[in-house]
Every structure is written in structure tokens, then in C-alpha cells.
Amino acid sequence: MRVYDHFxxxxxxxxxxxFHDLCVRAFAMYAEGIEKADLSRxxxxxxxxxxxxxxxxxxxxxLNAGWALSHPAFSLCRDRYEQCVRxxxxxxxxxxxxxxRYIADYYLTRYRLNNAFAQNGIALxxxxxxxxxxxxxxxxxxxxxxxxxxxxxIARKRDALAGITMSKVDREGLFGLxxxxxxxxxxxxxxxxxxxxxxxxxxxxxxLVLAPDPSLPIVTVVHCALFDIVxxxxxxxxxxxxxxxxxxxxxxxxxxxxxxRTGLLDGPMQPNPEA
Length: 275
Hints:
Elements: H1 14-34, H2 42-66, H3 70-91, H4 97-119, H5 137-142, H6 145-148, H7 151-160, H8 178-190, H9 193-196, E1 199-203, E2 208-212, H10 216-238, H11 245-262
Antiparallel strand pairs: 1-2
Helix pairs in contact: 1-2, 1-10, 1-11, 2-3, 2-10, 3-7, 3-8, 3-10, 10-11
């Protein structure tokens, strides 16, 4: 990608560069593998669209982090966490029920947008109402399931499901990162005082500067790499592509090796003894 030519000075940091490289290799693994899938299957087409958004978010996170733009990077880290959690919850299902709920939410969104524009007197060139207004209220409420289920509940239930990649990636949990990533990232997105107080005075050589903690760019990329590895591996497995087990094991093993060398992650995230 040409955007990689425009990364900031943090790319010179060995830890940052190592985790960035893992992100690149994870999506390269996905791109090579997905071409072997049956691209005519609707589920594969839908996942390819979801993975496009995932990669764009990952690149945006790393680009911001590379320039030490830690607030937007952390906001995107929150997004990557939710994307990975929801995607993984879907692809680990043994039936299509959750996928139906995911698709139903699309039509509910169209219905709400159609009403919102109408209430503001805006005439749209297309009608976004797919007939939901004709359904009984209790049926319309069922369409709220996808967006009404909290992310932490989905993460907890996702972790309880069996993995699908047949690699060590299956052992990586996501629920333990909810507080540290999703909640903190939500503070950034909500612009609350916690977000503002992430700023402090740091020595910049010539003098003190007001900035986020200098370690935050690396922290965000550490987590981004994990989400990318998990999602790319599971996308291939769900697309019925023979899982590149050795490469997936190598990526997650190197991720843990880099984590241990940086010493950035403690507490609920500890290396899996079998990884």
C-alpha cells in the first residue's frame, strides 16, 4: 500500500515496526487464502466486505499511531476490538441464526434512516423502507437484537465457543480486553474528561510538551495486530479455505514473543502456556 510510505516517526521504533509487520502479514495471509474460496457464495462475499472495513480500520489505526496521534488511534483500536469481537462471534456459530440477526439489523437501519429523513423534510431519491413499518411492534423489536446486545456480552459468549482455525489462534480470548480497550476507547470517542486527562507533560528534549503518553502508539498497535491475526485466520476458516495452520501459529507465536519483549501487557492478558 502506498499509505505505508507516509507513516510517521514511530515506524522507526522496533516494537512498533514489529507489530505493524504482523498486521501486514496477517492481511497478506487472508488475501492469498480468500482467492481460493468459492467467491460466489453469499457468505464469502459478505465476509470479504467485512474484512475490507477491518483492514481499512487497521491501516487507519496504524497510520494515526505512527504519527503519535494517540486519541484517534485509540478510538480506532476500540473499533477494531468491536469489529473483531462481532465478526468472531458470527463466524464461530454452528448455524445461521446470528447471521440472520446481523442482516436484519441492516434493514432496521434503513427503516430508521428513512424515518429520520422524512421527519426532517428531506426527500430521498430512493425509499429505504423495506416494509418494517407494516410489522407488529414486537417483531420490529426483535430486529434490535444485534445492536442492543452489549459488546462485552458478545465477547464473553464468543470466548466460550469452540475455535474454528485449527491453530493456536483459537486459544486467544477477547473478553479480557473489554475494559482496557473498549472502555478506554469509548472515553476517547465520547470526549469525556478521562479522554482529556490522557494528556500530560512530557520531556521533548528542548522542553516539556502537552501530549498523550509516548507508549500509547505502541499499545494500540499491539492490540491491533492481535485483532488482525484472529480475524484474518477466522475469515479463511469460515470461507472453507484450508487453514494455513503453520503460518497462523507463527503469527500468534511471534505476537506473544513481541509482547513479552516489550513488557507492555500485564494483568488479564498473559501468554497462553500452550501457545
